[in-house]
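Supplementary Methods. Inverse-folding protocol.

Structures were first reduced to a discrete structure-token string of length 181. This string, shown here, constituted the complete conditioning input.
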């Protein structure tokens, strides 16, 4: 496929099920300059491939069921990112770059089934978020200020955590259509 010249025109690719352990990630992904969506589920990734940073048009990134403990680095280089789904990994709160929540178009944030002990710093900056899934982590509390500016949320899932109470600001989420606690 690399010799056909089609790589610059690929809009989406599902590389799920491949074994990318040990840094074995296809270098040709860098040539996919208009790539909009990328699925890397069940690929044995333990760190983000550096090739992701060249995907400036990437909008949807899904990396579930891997061994990621951090998503630092390359995510911050994706200015068009609209959804980040990194379920079933080993990501800790310190492994999430705070600047990704300042991205204007980020509206789907899914860190379900990771190792979060507290909400990521600056998560409240994701004011355009419509989906927030932090379920099945080790969260013990939700900061009061978290939900103040996330008034566009349609779906909120905090189930499977160690929460004893929710911030009263949850009442401000007038657009909320689905909520799991």
């Amino acid at each position: 496929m690399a010799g056909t010249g089609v790589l610059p025109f690929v809009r989406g690719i599902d590389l799920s099920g491949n074994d990318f352990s040990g840094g074995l990630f296809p270098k040709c992904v860098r040539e996919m300059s208009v790539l909009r969506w990328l699925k890397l589920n069940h690929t044995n990734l333990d760190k983000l491939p550096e090739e992701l940073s060249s995907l400036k048009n990437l909008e949807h990134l899904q990396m579930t069921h891997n061994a990621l403990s951090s998503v630092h680095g390359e995510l911050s280089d994706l200015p068009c990112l609209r959804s980040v789904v990194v379920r079933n990994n080993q990501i800790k709160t310190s492994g999430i770059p705070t600047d990704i929540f300042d991205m204007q178009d980020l509206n789907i944030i899914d860190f379900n089934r990771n190792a979060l002990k507290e909400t990521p710093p600056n998560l409240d900056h994701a004011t355009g978020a419509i989906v927030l899934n932090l379920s099945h982590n080790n969260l013990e509390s939700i900061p009061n200020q978290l939900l103040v500016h996330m008034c566009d949320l349609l779906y909120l899932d905090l189930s499977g955590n160690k929460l004893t109470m929710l911030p009263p600001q949850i009442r401000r989420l007038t657009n909320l259509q689905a909520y799991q606690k």
